[in-house]
Amino acid sequence: MMAFYFSRLMEIFPFFLKGLWMTVQIAFISLFTCTVLGFFLGIFRSGQNRFLKWFIGVYVSFVRGTPFVVQVFIIFFILPEWGIQLEAFPAALLAMAIMGSAFICEIVAGGISSIPKGQWEAAASSGLTMTQQLRLVILPQAMKVILPPLVGQYVLLIKDTSVVSVIGVMELTRVGWVTVVRIPEGLMVFSLVGILYFVISYPLILLSNYLERRMAV
Amino acid sequence: MLADFNFRVIFEYLPLFLTGLRATFLISIVSIALALCTGIIACACRISPARVLKYPAIAYIEIIRSTPLLVQIYFLYFGLPTLGVRIPEIQTGILALMLNSGAYIAEIIRAGINSVDEGQLEAGISSGLNYVQRMRFIILPQALGVTIPPLLGQAIVLVKDSALLSLISVAELTRSGQLMTSERFMPTEAFFTVAFFYMCIYFVLKALAEWSQKKLIFREAY
To answer: What is the domain extent for residue B93?
Structure first.
């Protein structure tokens, strides 16, 4: 029976590759948007504007304090009630962007706050504008602190894309879930799914380990 | 938007949410306790010089860390019955959470042990302490202080991860929200209430983590 199911599984392997491609797409788009948004939020979080700081703080606590599945449900079920119809795929991207940017915001804000105040003062007294201070003086130094946890966060984000399967996005986990109904070999089907996730996330884990060792002062 | 937020329905469903909250509590506490044991064992194997222990531990930790929890849950949920093991969903879920968090806890403890200075170990050796005594009196007391804040962080992650058990129909907090949504179709009320309860747990654990961090800094200064 095992051999029969295995050959069936190999027959529908292209289906898994399609799922993998969907996962890669979601992961890639959301890593990009999360990084951009996260950096903006993180910079404002460590900025001067009190209201903005407080607002971002509330946003970050809400995202960090609730499970990602609940956030996905909120976005997918509640936006239609407010008259915003979203397909599963854009809803998944939105959920990922909201969740990921909050985590990256914290990493960026932590990195910026690790830079001594004297650096800001020195940059200001060299006549640099605020943007220049950030871009030329603060961020290049903060990157050393930001980069290792950022790559670690990327791994977590890639893994979190599995959760969007609950709203029916045909990504890797969903493909496994659909397949296991037809091929009742849970161990085999989800081993395959696991291997495919391993293939995309393990290189990033190695990169994050390497960065951690290199950036350790 | 939120103008017609229906509190009456929430109060009507409050018993359901509270049973869900209780289940989430129980699942989290049992899983974190089991994960701590798993993590300690896995870490002990990971740092041991014996290869038969070390390599399986590395494989376990790396496999868990590079696959999503949801896949691990489904792996056990759909996989155990094919092995002839039939256990209730809640036990499958706890098993998955235990294995998942165990790997992360093993890495946290290992980082804690590595953070103890080499000189401390040498001082222990030259004081004539044996391996167990060195661990007991020198390494662990120092490592423990470093590991407690990230362990509490892992506890926060575990409580949030337990929401995924709702997908294998374990009756916990998120599941209560899903049930209320399917019965009344009031997802706004249902999921914001669920989110509120999770936030409460999060803030308590976060305050605990920050407090322990302060204690830790005090210890270091001391």
So the answer is: 7-221
Closest Cα in chain B, distance from residue A1 (Å)? 12
**Domains annotated on chain A, with CATH:** 2-215 (1.10.3720.10)
Q: Is residue B1 part of a domain?
A: no
Complex confidence, ipTM: 0.91
Subunit contact A194:B178, Cβ cutoff 8 A: no
Q: Do B167 and A166 touch (CB under 8 A)?
A: yes
In chain B, the number of structural domains is 1
B139 domain residue, yes or no:
yes
What phi and psi, each to the nearest 5 degrees, are found at residue A171? -100, -170
Per-residue confidence in pLDDT tens, chain A, 217 aa: 778 888 888 888 999 999 999 999 999 999 999 999 999 999 999 888 889 999 999 999 999 999 999 999 999 888 887 788 888 999 999 999 999 999 999 999 999 999 998 988 899 898 888 888 888 989 999 998 999 999 999 999 999 999 999 998 999 999 999 999 888 888 899 999 999 999 999 999 999 889 888 887 5
**Which of B74, B85, B197 to mutate against chain A (most A CBs within 10 Å)?**
B74
Q: Measured between alpha carbons, how far is B171 from B150 in angstroms, rounded to an integer?
A: 28
Residue B168 lies in a domain: yes
Is the sign of the CA dihedral B169, B175, B180, B186 positive or negative? negative
> What are φ and ψ of residue B199, in 5° steps?
-60, -40
Is residue B73 in some structural domain? yes
- Give the other-Cβ count within 10 Å of A126's Cβ: 11
Q: Do A205 and B164 touch (CB under 8 A)?
A: no
Mean pLDDT per 10-residue section of chain B, whose length is 222 residues = 72 90 95 95 92 94 94 94 88 95 94 86 89 84 84 94 93 91 85 93 92 69 44
Q: Would you call A177 and B77 a contact, using CB atoms and an 8 Å cutoff?
A: no
Report the half-sphere exposure of B134 (CA within 13 A, side-chain side).
17
Q: Does B163 touch chain A (CB under 8 A)?
A: yes
Sign of CA dihedral A10, A15, A18, A24: negative
Instruction: Please give the interface size between A and B, counted as residue pairs whose CB atoms are below 8 Å apart.
Output: 131
